[in-house]
Amino acid sequence: MKRRDFIQIAGVAAAVSSLPLGVGASILNQKRKKIYHVGIIGYGDRGSGLHRVMNRMPDKFSVKAIAEVLPFRAQPAAEQYPDLKVHQDYRKLLDSAEIDTVVVSTPLNAHFEHAKAVLEAGKNLYLEKTMLFTLEEIQAFQELVRNYPNQTIQVGHQYRYSPLYFKVKDYIQKGWLGKITQVSARWDRNASWRRPVPSPEYERQVNWRMYKEYSGGLVAELLSHQMDFINWAFDTVPDRIYGTGGIDYYKDGRETFDNVQVTLRYDQAGMVGNFGATCGNQYEGYAFKIKGTEGTISLLTNDGVFYPEPEAKAKLQEVDGVSGATPITWTENRNGIKLVDEPTKDGTIYALEDYYRCLEEKATPLCNVENAGNTAKLVALANQSLYQGELKTWKG
């Protein structure tokens, strides 16, 4: 092997052996300046889940109040947390001078109203993904936030904070996968996605994800994570968007599709992205593959493997076995290289750690109104294509 090739491959090996620190790590050695008092608007699965994670960060966050319109969610919260202030009207939460920052985890169609009100109340904002519902809301909100330069606004796409996905982004940018032409992403289940309701009048409020008035369906709730990562990792957006799908299995009154496939064409990157989800089969579950001329990365939400193409694999095995200079962690059958030694933590933890850093430093979050707005726009266009059966083009 030529010395130049050896140095290049050794550089690749060094990259696969080094796990980037989480973006929130910079705050670990800082003196804690403040514990932020939090209010949560919307206390369903996601809002209550964020509460539980924040409770594991008592040196950063203290949840003081929630706003929830459904009594069968509000009452158990009041019983579980006796000191928690529970409001039905979110405006009463925003009126509290005690609250520093607000989490919005309501149905997607309510994001704009609630996020706007949070900013107008002078609070910092953690806005769950997908950022907003319609193209008009996205444009209006991006213009609105210019009036609030001193408030921190973070959007909840978690892959932008995971050490695993930071490593994948590094692989892509440094060319370890070669020329990437294909992305294949799925998030499948064999279940209706339906939540039980205590009484029929609550159907649309509980199962809002199934109704077009409230929801972006499977694209917004699941595939937006993978779409957002591709936007971030390649610093790009798709030029053309085409979706197809239907209500193909669950004939239960739902309006959003239970089976979708969205194809994205990225002209600048020279790449095709295929993003699909079904409620009728769970075999693949979560599957995310990025394919290049030098190798493939196969990802789960918290783990991943790099599978080099045959020639690249032979060079990596030679460096690992002969030089002993790089501790590459191969899979048991030596077909691939592990990206992390252990599965990463819940992505919410990394996201909230960095949200704290941004609050302290008055920094712009990695997932912010501009780039998360691009993902929200992509979701909106994908859904337009799904329901209208038309090819959509990206217009800045």
Automatic annotation (TrEMBL):
Occurrences of domain Gfo/Idh/MocA-like oxidoreductase N-terminal (ranges): 37-157
Domain GFO/IDH/MocA-like oxidoreductase: residue ranges: 167-297
Organism superkingdom: Bacteria
A Pfam family assignment: GFO_IDH_MocA_C3
One MF term in the entry's GO annotations: nucleotide binding
Listed InterPro entries: Gfo/Idh/MocA-like_OxRdtase_N, Gfo/Idh/MocA_oxidrdct_glycsds, GFO_IDH_MocA-like_dom, NAD(P)-bd_dom_sf
Identification of the protein by name: Gfo/Idh/MocA family oxidoreductase
Organism (species): Algoriphagus formosus
